Amino acid sequence: MPADPTPATDAATDAATDAATEASTDAATDAAPDVAPGVAPGRFAGAVAIVTGGSRGIGLAIAQRLVAEGARVCITARHADVLDEAAATLPDGRCISVVGRAEDPEHRAEVLRRVADEFGRVDVLVNVVGMNPVFGDLIGVDLGAARKIFEVNVITPLAWVQDLVAHPGLQFAERGGCIVNLSSVTGTTPSPGIGLYGVSKAAVAHLTRTLAVELGPSIRVNAVSPAVVRTVFSRALYEGKEEAVTAGYPLGRLGEPGDVASAVAFLASADAGWITGEVLTIDGGLLAAGGVA
Ligand SMILES: NC(=O)c1ccc[n+]([C@@H]2O[C@H](COP(=O)([O-])OP(=O)(O)OC[C@H]3O[C@@H](n4cnc5c(N)ncnc54)[C@H](OP(=O)(O)O)[C@@H]3O)[C@@H](O)[C@H]2O)c1
């Protein structure tokens, strides 16, 4: 009886697979010795991104990630010193920075003018700027503060989209542009004390879906919705009580800015080419566990 050929075939296949895996691992190691885990070098080669609120926290991590994957970026913020420090973390020629308030139309016009002059195109807009100056129940919230939160968190991302899409030289739609907005899990599940902020972030989620419907097929619009990420902005939510806060997260830790940056890079890339109108939760499992940020 002839021997069963399968084992030999399996062995040959295994050997070939091992050799191929080893070769491709060697090649990857040789080609990109300094590449951080998960980074896809070249995924944004030639592309240009605007990241509002890019001087620290989540915005800076997004800018760094996009640059690591080949993009050139324009980052914005109000404080020049911190913005300069952020820009200095990025390689020469890959970053410009423009100081100003995201909600100021003249600032937006200056950003688009500078980007057009220096890079000549925009492929990605990441609306990171957001604020929450009040703490307390909705029923007692100061309506002036409420209007300001909506101005910065909801109207301003819309204004950036309007200005960018209308810009005659940047050809955002023609390039198949991508927009990523910053929502929050507080827009899904009400969080005590930051209710109005949550309402504004729920509006960002629906702004995202509505823009996706209006701007397709040429422009994709998505959002990320993080739980607590360790930044200056959220410090009051975890400082001095991190162990207790972390207990509600199935993954056993709070988010880091890089956790959000990697999701934004995915949504802004061609890897997400058939995804629009999506609000991607990034929460270490918090909502699945029935938790509240
Ligand atoms: N951290 C979290 O736990 C968390 C969770 C869910 C969602 N988010 C959202 O993620 C986004 C970023 O949060 P983050 O934690 O990274 O905040 P952050 O550390 O406070 O950083 C905010 C960035 O935006 C800039 N900025 C703030 N207001 C601005 C304005 N009006 N005009 C221009 N730039 C402005 C800040 O620089 P300047 O102060 O110099 O202007 C800074 O670069 C926000 O939309 C936030 O709502 C955060």
TrEMBL record:
CDD domains given in the database record: SDR_c (cd05233)
Pfam families: adh_short_C2 (PF13561)
InterPro entries, per database record: NAD(P)-bd_dom_sf, Sc_DH/Rdtase_CS, SDR_fam
Chain residue ranges for the region called Disordered: 1-34
Family affiliation: Belongs to the short-chain dehydrogenases/reductases (SDR) family.
Protein name: SDR family oxidoreductase
Provenance organism: Herbiconiux daphne
